Amino acid sequence: MSAMLERLVNQPYKHGFVTPIEEEVIAKGLSEDVIRIISRKKNEPDWLLEFRLNAYRHWLTMREPRWANVRYSEIDYQDIIYYAAPRPKKKLSSMDEVDPELRRAFEKLGVPLHEQKALAGVAVDVVFDSVSVATTYKTKLAELGIIFCSFSEAVQEHPELVKKYLGSVVPPTDNFFASLNSAVFTDGSFCYIPKGTKCPMDLSTYFRINTQDSGQFERTLIIAEEGASVSYLEGCTAPKFDTNQLHAAVVELIALDNAEIKYSTVQNWYTGDENGVGGIYNFVTKRGLCKGVNSKISWTQVETGSAITWKYPSCVLLGDNSIGEFYSVALTNHRQQADTGTKMTHIGRNTRSRIISKGISAGRSSNSYRGQVKIGPRAQNARNYSQCDSMLLGSACSANTFPYIDVQNNSGKVEHEASTSKIGEDQLFYFAQRGIGAEAAVSMIINGFCKDVFNQLPMEFAVEATKLLGLKLEGSVG
Amino acid sequence: MKGKNILLEVRNLSAEVAGAQILKGINLTVKAGEVHAIMGPNGSGKSTFAKVLAGHADYSVTGGQVLYQGKNLLDMPPEERSRAGVFLAFQYPVEIPGVSNSAFLRLAYNTLQGARGAEELDPLEFDDFIREKIKLVGMDPSFLDRSVNEGFSGGEKKRNEIVQMAVLQPTLAVLDETDSGLDIDALKVVANGVNQLIRPDNAIILVTHYQRLLNYIVPDFVHVIESGQIVKTGGKELAFELENRGYDWVRAEFDAAKAAA
Known about the structure:
- The complex is a heterodimer.
- Chain A is of the alpha/beta class.
- Chain A contains twelve helices and 23 strands.
- The interface between A and B is medium-sized, with 22 and 31 residues.
């Protein structure tokens, strides 16, 4: 039965193609000079170069964290390309101007890059290696005062907003990878929803790493002003390479009074092969600040890829009555390692948080949930509910749960539930006796297991996530 | 009886589980329209026989043959047996958390329809269809939204098995101790449901320890299984005799007959 499950969860990575377009890269390695080059290439103001250099100088004093339940050989930070951009870099005003090779690559990925496809209601900002290539629907959004553009463009067009909020949630000294990102980030998405505006469509970014040995250090900043709301979708893939690629992104969300941000990710970076060769190191810092009263930030993630995932989308609940949510499905297979979870920091009164984490481990993978719930002294009547469920497929994988709870206010209420289950042979036999083959049975059980999280995803993404898990579990059943 | 279609032919079937020989030469012929009861003491091999027919991987066949509608049943994987019309009502139905009863039933039904080349039902059509089926055992529609067997009482699980039988309309249904754990009212409901599913072109094998089920589902044949063999076959009156006299005498008679032979 274990052998059958292994075949079920083993299927080749579908996005493992390299797009042969000319890229502009700078030599491997990291130094103040490299940072200056990046900053100059991007035509950045002095304060931003200072921001980068300060982050870099601080980073030099830091040590790579080793507390996560993941193992990997040391990363040589001098062996990474810190800047790669598709050439030519001339400004594009319409989709038709995008390199046909690039367009074909996105078509293969299923990104709705064409305006027509985008009519489905998704505005897409595409980040290809380090530079945002094209942004759809910008004009329509601009009419509402919504800014949705690449990070580089925001630096040029809206420097006051970038300066005000950059590093305000994840300071450049926050942690090793956030500092590295602050020093060398190349592009990402910027999104600003003005006061009282509900963004009429889901905003979407598609990240893809193309160049071998390149790191992707994107920076995303989303600001929802008073009474504003937005739903943001992020999808990720990478081609297959034998070497490991580093992805160290920083995402900062800021919700002011009565604002709401919903951030959904479907992550399908290359996982490495079944022996653990290659694959993405996904070391990401994502944090949302519920700054205003009654604000709400909701993270939903479906993590199926990467060789190593180190990621804790968190909420700082500063405003009174603010709400933080984290819904997660993490599937690991082969030699994948995931240490992922969240941090809910309750500071304001009557703040509430909810954590639903579903881990699925297969092959020889290791899947850990790590979560912290902290209720500060001023957080009167704060509440948290956490539920962490693990499912094991086969007997060579592992699942761990590391909850940290820190309550400094007597009125706080924290609930934590956890469960571990296995797909049993008797369950599969029961399905079979009703005419349902093992593949369909496993898929149905896993979708049932993930239901609470999938229900949180926007419709399109929910369908994609269901399909993706199906693909990961596809195989011949003997 | 002559001229009736033979559905199942079991010839000298032996099987083992975890290295222990449980079935030691079972012979049984089941024709369309018949109800067979297989009775026997605990550990006699009744449930093993049911599971071997369904193709459970823990049980390996060590000898003999099973023909179902003339085909070699033992060559077919469990899901194909099901799609060919062999149904097993489980003694202990498993719980499947997170999978709703209606989604499960619909997938099972549509898989079968697909295998038959018949039309599948969409969720709305299936809802109408299944609401009719559950009336058969007086099941509340709220059960359709609950996870398969999760938190169901023993009686509810058994009724759910009969609902599945009603959905799949099997040609050969094997009911493994469907009466165990049921109070008398639930037993009547389940038996009534089964009786409504009996057709001239299908057959039922009731595996049971007690005679009381047979008051409600009347068998054409009663077989006594003992140490992995069918040691006596009779009509429905044999069940009453077993109820009164226990099983020991059957074994004694069988051994005496063997010694005389």
